[in-house]
Design goal:
alpha/beta, Aspartate Aminotransferase, domain 2, 2 domains, 7-stranded mixed sheet, 14 strands, binds pyridoxal-5'-phosphate
Length: about 375
């Protein structure tokens, strides 16, 4: 057991909003007596997210995973979907769950996003779509991916679970591709507890997803023109989201300051993924790349010793899942074995950041002497 003086520092911790602001929303819910079914708070959250990020359509749903499933379903995909091996499991599992086949293309060694040249080498006549992740909120090669999509008539879905608040070339990164999906899980920068959203520019697609998330209902008379599912967000989750959204700009600013402090101590000692030029980052994650898996494990053990628990986002590569085909992805294999996300959340104070940095640096020095 660790001493109570030393609280565990995890990779992330939700900065809970002021409870009174949440209770104010709850009072409204109690007065109206409406807990779900596209209530006023869900509608308000959708409008405020669209305004904040500059989006055309944003449909909030009950999770980031169901957002991916709805995207695949709404685009009527049932064949091969080229995807990245370096992401959270939901990126691959949603493809397989929807009856499609995940085909893996290796990643770029600097941005760690899917490599468009590799996409081209695994393309076949069965390929219907590309599902790429803006990993850590780092933008994919959206132009090259778009060129491939046009050339081969493919749909493009971005798993943008990490990309809330990221701008690329002066607009939200969520505006690229046919559909982008968000996760509002508690571990994400903007959260509703559980939740997510589907973002798109196409009116028809948006209408379709709006119906699909609500059993396929097309109006108050409840007729069902096509298959749907229950992916609705509740008013209780939307209320939390409205409170969290009010503080999200401040959260990004605070995270930026923490990242600068990490940079000042660690630059030159650890490799970092490369952010594409023209990106305004959201500071959602602080990934660092070690020289080897053994070095990573040595540093992680030293951090665990002092109750600091970074996470291996994302290990192992998804091409190792039992229910997918085998594809050689040597870069994803190599990077995922050597990458670690350091703790990053608004409450982390300077003393804690400095402590983490000094433990990392000391462990790196010890390791190189071994
Ligand atoms: C969190 C996450 C998801 C899944 O979102 P949930 O809201 O937890 O269902 C999907 N993809 C990526 C890359 C994620 O990090």
């Amino acid at each position: 057991m660790h001493s109570p003086k030393q609280p565990r520092i995890l990779v992330t911790k939700p900065a809970l909003p002021d409870m009174d602001s949440y209770i104010d929303y709850l009072r409204g819910i109690w007065e109206r007596g409406q807990l779900t079914n596209n209530g006023p708070l869900v509608k308000e959250l959708e409008i405020r997210i669209k305004d904040y990020l500059g989006l055309k359509h944003c449909l909030v749903v009950s999770s980031g995973t169901i957002a991916l499933q709805l995207a695949l379903k709404a685009l009527e995909l049932d064949g091969d979907v080229i995807t990245t091996p370096f992401s959270f499991v939901a990126t691959s599992s949603a493809i397989a769950w929807e009856g499609c086949r995940p085909v893996f293309a290796d990643i770029e060694n600097d941005t760690l996003c899917i490599d468009p040249d590799r996409i081209e080498t695994v393309l076949t006549e069965h390929t219907q779509a590309i599902l790429a992740t803006h990993i850590y909120g780092y933008p994919c090669a959206v132009d090259s991916i778009q060129d491939l999509a046009v050339k081969h008539q493919l749909k493009v879905i971005y798993d943008a679970a990490h990309a809330f608040g990221v701008n690329y070339r002066n607009q939200s990164l969520l505006n690229f591709g046919d559909i982008s999906t968000l996760s509002f899980h508690a571990t994400k920068l903007f959260y509703t507890g559980e939740g997510g959203a589907v973002v798109c520019n196409d009116d028809y697609l948006a209408e379709r997803i709006r119906r699909m998330r609500d059993f396929g209902i097309n109006g108050p008379e409840a007729f069902y023109p096509e298959i749907g599912i229950n992916a609705k967000m509740s008013e209780l989750h939307a209320a939390l989201g409205l409170c969290v959204l009010s503080g999200v700009s401040e959260a990004i600013a605070r995270r930026k300051a923490i990242c600068s402090r990490y940079d000042a101590a660690l630059t030159g000692r650890l490799v970092r993924p490369v952010l594409r030029e023209g990106t305004e980052y959201n500071y959602a994650y602080y990934p660092v790349i070690f020289a080897s898996q053994a070095e990573l494990q040595h540093v992680r053990d030293a951090l665990n010793e002092v109750s600091v628990y970074p996470r291996r986002y994302f290990y192992p590569p998804l091409s190792r899942l039992d229910y997918v085909g085998q594809y050689p992805v040597p870069l994803a294999e190599d990077i995922s074995a050597r990458i670690l996300c350091l703790p990053l959340y608004e409450e982390l104070d300077e003393e804690q950041i400095d402590m983490i940095c000094s433990v990392v640096l000391r462990a790196l020095n010890n390791y190189s002497k071994e």
